[in-house]
Amino acid sequence: MDIVVRNGTVIDPVSLNETRADVGIRNGIFAFVGEGAPKGSLELDASGSLVLPGLIDTHMHFEHRVGDPYTVLRSLLLQGVTTAFAGHCGEGVMMKEYKEWFSQNPVLNMGFMTGASTLRRAVGAEDRYSPANSGQISIMEGLLEENLREGARGLSFGLEYAPGTSWEELSRLARVVSRFSHRLISIHIRSDGHQSPAAVAEAINVARESGVRVQISHLGSMTAFGHSGEALDMIEKARGEGVDVTFDVYPYYAFAARIGSAVYDPGFEERLGKGLESLEVSTGKYKGVPLTPEVFARAREEDPDAYVIAHVMNPREVDMCLLHPDSAIASDAVLRGDEGHPRAAGTFPMGIGILRNAGLSWPEAVRHATSRPAEMMWHKGGRIVEGANAELVVIDPDSYEDRGRFGAPLVAPGGVKWVILNGDVAVEEGEIVGSPNGQILLAE
Ligand SMILES: [Zn+2]
Questions:
Q1: Distance 161 CA to ligand 1 centre (A)
Q2: Which is deepest, 26, 68, 347, 417, by most CB within 10 Å?
Q3: Per DSSP, which regions of 134-286 are E strands?
Q4: Any idea what the CATH number is for the domain that residue 14 is in?
Q5: Ligand 1 centre distance from Cα of residue 298 (Å)
C-alpha cells in the first residue's frame, strides 16, 4: 500500500454505517477498506478520528481573476473539499479558459458550468434589463453546444443578475442542454425575498418543460424571508410529479452580491424587508465604510464589483432548507483576492455542525456533503469503497469547526488532520502540503 489510514472510524453516507477500519490506498485508488490492512509506505494514525469521504462542493465560483485566483480553491481544500464544480449564477466562463486556468494550479478535482450571462456578453446582449434577440440567442445556442461538447457539466443562469432574460432565451438554451446526457442547469432564481415563490416556480418550469435536471442555487439565501417552507413544498410536489429539480444551500444567514448588480437596484429594501443598516461592503475601497444613502450610491458607481454582505435571512429558515433530506451543502464560495464572504473558508464544518446539532448522526450529516451532491452531479464519488478514487478527509470530531468570520473570512477551520486527494496527502494538520494534483472532471 502507498498510504494506510489506520484505526479511524470510517463514515459511509450510503449505508449510514460508522465502522472502525483501516483504509489502504494504492495508485490513487482505495485498495483496502477493513480490519488489518497490510503495511503502507506511509502510515497515518487516525485513532479517535473520523475518516470521511472527500467533500463535494456542487456550487462555487472560480471566475474572478483578482489577486490570487486560487485562494478560493485552497480555502475549500482546507475544509476537506476534494471535488468542486464552478461556474454558477450565470458567471461560468468558456471551457477553453477554464481548462487553461485550471491546468496552471489544479488544487482540487474540478468540473465547470457554462454561464448564460457569459454567453450573453459574447453575443453583445450586454444590457441586463433587455432580452437577447432571436439572432443573438441562436449564436448563444451554438456557443453553448460547443462548450457542452468540450465537457461542460451544464449551463448556469443568474436570473436575478440578468432580469431581462426572456422565457424564449431560457427555453431555447435549456433545449440545447437536453440533447446531452447527464448535464444540468443551475439557476440562481429571478428574485429573492418576497418575490421568491414565483421565481422558484419559474425554475421548476424550466425543468418540467425541458426535461433537464435543474439545481436551484443557494435556496436559503433566496427564500429565507418567510418563504422557505413554501419553496420546499413546491420542490417536493414537483419531484413527486417526476420533475427533476434539486437544490443547494450554504449555511449562513447573510448573502453576498456585487454592489453594482441588480440585487441592489432601487426597491431592494422592500423586497428583503431590511435596509442599508443590514449591509456591509466586504471588498475594495469601501470595505467597512458605514453605508449612508450617499456612500451607497457612490460605491455602486465607483466600485460596482465590490461584494456587499447582506445580513438579512431568517436563520431558522436557512436551517430548514439545509435539514431537508434532499439538500446539498454547497459553498457558493467567491472571493476577490483574499476578501469576501467567510463561506469560502467555513461552509462545510459550519453546515455539518448545524446538521449534527439538529440531531443527525455523522453519516446522516456527512451525506449532505458527499453522496448527495455526487448523485446531483452524476459524479462517481462521495464514498470510501474499494476501487473508488482515493479522496478522503480525516477530522477530529470534537474540534472540526469553521473559524472564518465576517471581517476575517479566510481563517481555516479547526480539526482537519489530513486531506487525501487522488491518492496523495494534500493537507496535513491544517496546512497544504505537496504539489497540486487535481483532475479536471469533464462531462462524458
Ligand atoms: Zn448565485
A1: 9
A2: 347
A3: 154-158, 184-188, 213-216, 245-249, 255-258, 279-281
A4: 2.30.40.10
A5: 24
